[in-house]
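Worked problem 6 (solution included).
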Amino acid sequence: MNINVWDIMAPAFFECLILVGIHSYLGLHVLRRKVIFVDLALAQIAALGTTVGFLFGIMPGTTGAYWFSLFFTFIGAGVFSVIRFRHEKIPQEAVIGLAYAIAASVSILVIDKAPHGAEHIKEILTGSILWVKWSTIFKAAVVYSFVGLFHYIFRRQFILISENPEEAYKQGLSVKFWDFLFYVSFGIVITHSVGTAGVLLVFVFLVVPAITSMLITNVWWKQLVIGWVMGVIVSVVGLYISYVADLPSGPTVVTFYGFALLIVALTLYVARAKEKTGALLKLAAGVGVVIVVVAGFFLMGNYFNNSHEHQETQEENVAGTVKNNMKTNAPGSLDLLIEKYRKTNDEYEKINIATKILKINKVKGLNILLNQLEKSDLPFMREEIINRLRNATGKNFGYDSEKNSDENSVSLKKWKEWINSQM
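Solution. The predicted structure is:
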């Protein structure tokens, strides 16, 4: 079975497309309202809802987790609409930032009491967009379409409040009411987005296309088109880089978004400068400073690294020798890996160790991964394991990571039979 880049990346690509579609639009509102971190705050509040559900045994990605997340988001929407005043002494953004910090802190406190807490925190931040299912993409597309239609019907109220709230007050609009509707619709989008893309990617999808388009033009429809085009290009390139370089998809797309924004900003700076030569010289000077700083850190790193190497103990040298032996598949390396696997309690580390074992002894590694798959309680961990099994064998046998071992009994039986046939 030949697996190409499209087979793996197609779901993630289409998920990025629908995320770009709705978030680029909402980002224009967010920037005009000067509540830049409302997305991050609502995303974290939605994640807090998922975390609280996780504490009660409700797995991320399930219907129960969704409703926990949505309920918490509605509470956040209510708070953010209430705290807006016509003549405010404290900026709304300050309260939003405080809400984010509190939600993040409570999430850490809650998850500290739950099993596999570290894996869950990582999932919240980076998401699992690479493993998104077509059914999830379809549901998100339907929900986002309804939200988009709602905003189109009431576009006059939403745009007026975002662009000129004082005029909205003068016209007698209930700004708090329309704010509440805005944040509720915004929260519905965020609740869906965070589950697959994670907090960081959701924030970037919202802010970067909007910033880029607003740097170029002040016309709404042109800003939307620019944001959508940029989002599509960055998503394609970012996902491809993550595939080729074997990097996490979400963080890779986030990083490339930042790089694309920098390129656009520098290009506009030069293009709009009255003296092009002076602008280019300043740009070249800036690049030179960056190169000098990077080179300085590189030299400093090498200096301290060399000093550290001179102070290595005999025990560390022996450990290095063992590590080299492991890389060359020395006979003792398999036993060392198995012992390390038994000692660790971190599920993700177990998966990584099992993958290394697989490269030395395929059958043993497959059996260990399959055993880990049967024991795992977390859907995103099961998805990670089944992906590694699939990459190593080209097989799938219909395993569904959203279901437990009993519901996947037929698939697990086929996996065992196939692995035994390889012995």
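Discussion: DSSP finds 18 helices and no strands in the chain.
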